[in-house]
Give the backbone structure.
Amino acid sequence: MTGLGDRRAAAPSFALARGWRARALMPPSALFGANGVKLGPDGRLYVAEAFGSRISAIDVDSREVTTICDIGASIVAPDDMAFDSRGVMYVPDVMSARVSARMPNGEVRVVAGDLPCANGITVHQDRIFMDECRPGGRLAEIFLDGSAPRVIAEALPAPNALAVGPDGLLYFPLVTEGEIWRVAPAGGAPERFAGGLGVPTAVKFDGKGALLSVQAATGELLRFDLRTGARTVLARLRPGLDNLDVAADGRIFVSHYIDGGVEEVLADGRESPLSPPGLLGPYGVAAAPDGGVYLCDGLSLVVVARDGTRRAAGHRMDGAFPGWVRGIALAGEGFVVVTTAEGRLVRYHPDTHAMETLASGLQEAMDVAIAADGAVMLTEAGSGSLVAVGKDGKRVLASELERPMGLALGGDGVAYVAEANAGRVVAVDAAGGVTALMNGLVEPHGVAIVDRTLFALDVGTRRLLACDLAGREVEIVATGLPVGSPPGTLAPVLPGIPQRIPGPLSAFAGLAAGMDGTLYLSANGAGAAIAFMRSA
């Protein structure tokens, strides 16, 4: 059962032209990721979707999903939430350095600012405590009368989701240190409670006064005895755990920031999905010779095999991962080449995690392709350039392009580039000459070439188009595609998180062609992936 706020329900049904058929590689996702979770006064589980600029609520029994704060509202990147006795919800905005309050009537106002990487938050006896998940982060009490926050502790290495224990102390994980610490709300020297953990991201307390903590690296849910410090593994889940909450009846709910899944953890350690794992984007896409499809999904790299099975081929909790990945091309011998939001071009092996930076300092690197001579070509939306990176270093092939996004290479060495701000697709020849091939588009992203047909994904009109390069006739292949911002909304460009996930985290809806002519589309508006092929 889905509510109106469910991302799956928001994705419109698309229509296909005669002679075309489609199949889903990945079904739509209900959520735009899942970060902080908190049971609200109404008994629903509220979910902060930092990378989707939304807050949703899930009925823990029916699994119905409803939007609470939609994309385009004043809360840009919610990462956690807490409620006071009046039902006011307090939300740290991790990418906007502030904390907002959402009233029961839906009104939202900023209650504190100048809080870099504002992340964890808790309310105890209507007192509001928050911390900044960054190197040198602070833990502070926030006031509603406009007073400056009162700093309780500072110079902390990445404190995160915190809670007040039955002993009246504030407990908080230090993510990068693998430790849990505590401090008196009045201040004083913090002390370590537990160490040697697997990237603890949140702490909460159950009804018996035991501390529970999720471990992002190991996927473990741990319980700690406050008196002795003894720890017990309650469940072994998949890596990427972000947060948790405990109901009055003892039910435990957890979230996964890498794949957006939200689950109830049963008494025997098994998980019961409230919202199944899905895709945050996806963004770039590449087709493998064996029929598999690679999807860049920001915090992870996902591979969908020909038989439909899915695996995470790399993610942020691996020993090494390139960063926030966006564009992708297959480089042979199991390697891929990806662009990252922090401006790097990286050669990466998903199985061995071998990684080599081919270029850095790029300006909004988007799509990527590999030329016949082995040079790696990419689009730089920020500089308006088509760039080649080879043994001689980096060179600009074309400049003054208007926000170049998608890239495809023809067999004749011509590069086909989508200019999002110009509303066109152009051909760039070896000498850097630019020729317009498709005009009148609104915001083209992904492009692909099959024989002498150029395909373009126009996010602005939600259409997939085909252009016969011989006669320049344009065919509409599909309309109403679930790409870009959901209908009626305008997603902000996320600025990223300094030192953790540098931005901007610009969206990109990719398109790729398989060896058999099948087209693969990143349906980033619905968290899905779709294959298109001509009817037999």
